[in-house]
Amino acid sequence: MTNPVHIIGGGLAGSEAASQLAEAGVPVILDEVRGARRTAAHHTDQLAELVCSNSFRADDPDNNAVGLLHAEMRALGSLVMAAADKARVPAGSALAVDRDIFATHVTTTLESHPHVTIVREMVEGLPPAEWDKVIIATGPLTATPLAEAIQALTGQESLAFFDAIAPVIHHESIDLDIAWAQSRWDRENQDGGTTDYLNCPMDRDQYNAFIDAMLAAEKTSFKEWEGTPYFDGCMPIEVMAERGRNTPRFAPMKPVGLTNPATGRRAFGVVQLRQDNALGTLWNMVGFQTKMKHAEQVRVFRMIPGLENAQFARLGGLHRNTFIKSPVLLDATLRLHADPRIRFAGQITGCEGYVESAAIGLVAARFAIAEARGQAAVPPPATTAMGALLAHITGGADAKHFQPMNVNFGLFPPLVPPPLSKDQRKPQLVARARADLAGWMAA
User: 3-class DSSP state for residue 210?
Assistant: First the structure.
């Protein structure tokens, strides 16, 4: 009988890895701390709980790198993508999900799988020597004993960055006489609808008063983490404002592509809300990750027109993410140089984003499956979305300045010969990726 693969961490990467292995007939023992103790960011004991946002971002495989990654994962039987498709809620051209339906689908699927054993415990320190195949997918909230053990084994300091969480609001408390429904540029969703977002408008005076209040609000501080950088994709809204009071107007508060039906004009600034659950009873503030203290969030966010009486199902928060120096520590198949029985997967490797984390879990599992079958572990081509992300993690990045990265077309190898026009670049990158993925899967 094939020895089990031990997976430490039941987030998106660990859950995806467990599913891939189990579906291939490889037994899995999945260790997840939630159920034994709480974490700083999670609210449930469900596997693959979504903490920061309910969005998997763009679902367009022809024009967007993360949409292409969605398509590649679906082609490889991804549990995470199957759960996301099942739990989809309206979000224009993006893929957003009902968090509870999503996590429940992942959890029940793995709990009922005959090749998966779930153990609710914390793994203290490095995996025991008798575990001959291990995937560490502990994510950004890796427990201190394990992080310190990895550091002691590798001789490399762990890197860290702050991540922030956006608030969620009860729909019934939103003033729909002020907020209106419209997707930016009237982009259609999969059903042809163009009203997936609620928009709260601000004139110049309201915007400036709001920025002043955010900047003056009391913030959460972590003195022991001073100097730790923020990840740009989850930067707190008030940190954006500190970089320039108009910065939010070119980021989550941009008014372009939206027309207020009450005035027939574009507002000075707009706060968008996106549906957070299938019932439509909860909506999250898009791009409004924050480190303001809870009482301050309630006071400041109720200054937003349409949210004067907002009731919050969840307030925003800030936590530290931990990741390793993967280009130095890992080989091309995600194995730890210092202990090759151990692979790493997910955000701890320095990828950023739900889909990216799950994709690296999928790839790590595919490598482990190949080894279990006595085959060579062959990485996906760097011309694919998965391969480009893997290459960035395991050697494509400057190790000295390595930082978490979302998948993007800038990670893909250049086209040879170069396209004749800029408009041809993405279609040619996508066509090459699809062809190369098909060849890798066939092999």
Answer: helix
